[in-house]
Amino acid sequence: MLNKKSIAALALSATLILSGCGLSNTAKGTGIGVGAGAIIGAGVGRVLGNTAIGAAIGGVVGGTAGALIGKKMDKQKKELEEQVKNAKIESVNDGQAIRVTFDSGILFATNSSTLTSTSQTSLRNFAANLKVNDQTDLLIIGHTDNTGSDRINDPLSLNRASSVRSFLSSQGVASNRMRVEGKGSHEPVADNSTAAGRKENRRVEVYILPNKAMVEAAQNGTLK
Length: 224
What we know:
Helix content: 40-55%
Mean pLDDT: 81
Shape: globular
Number of strands: 5
Strand content: 15-25%
Number of helices: 10
Low-confidence stretches: 1-22, 26-51
């Protein structure tokens, strides 16, 4: 069981590793093994209040295979930064996964899980990229702020994540690549006592994760 000091130490270690003095995902992918990655991922997830990183992504692949996965994810991240303008796009899990965060206010009207027409252009571009980069799985997580009750927020967050999955599927992204979760208000990334913080907490996160085929190709040295 990790105590608070241990978690803090892991978070600091993870920050140093992930920052890597400007290292690319390729370089980062070489330097850490699966066991250490799983521990750091779990520790960072708890510290940041977002357990998806540790629980859903888990460990990273080390050595040459990890470098190949990092290079592949680097390329996709740069593509997404060009193609999907109204989302926050970050490397996570030592550069071997990507987190794309959409502001729920851009995707949905208040208290609605129906996608707005203006959001669909970005999601179409997102889907086009995902179809080209098909050696990945997707975890789509809906979040709310703490306004209202869990009875409202929990299903709303799940329904919003499901709406994103349904739209991506309608654009040709295979449904078996995607799973959804609704976290309600339980994993905030900002202070719910401020309007700015609540806005930041109302979000849909899409984690782009290497699938089994990508990992096996990386281990075989054939991943391009």
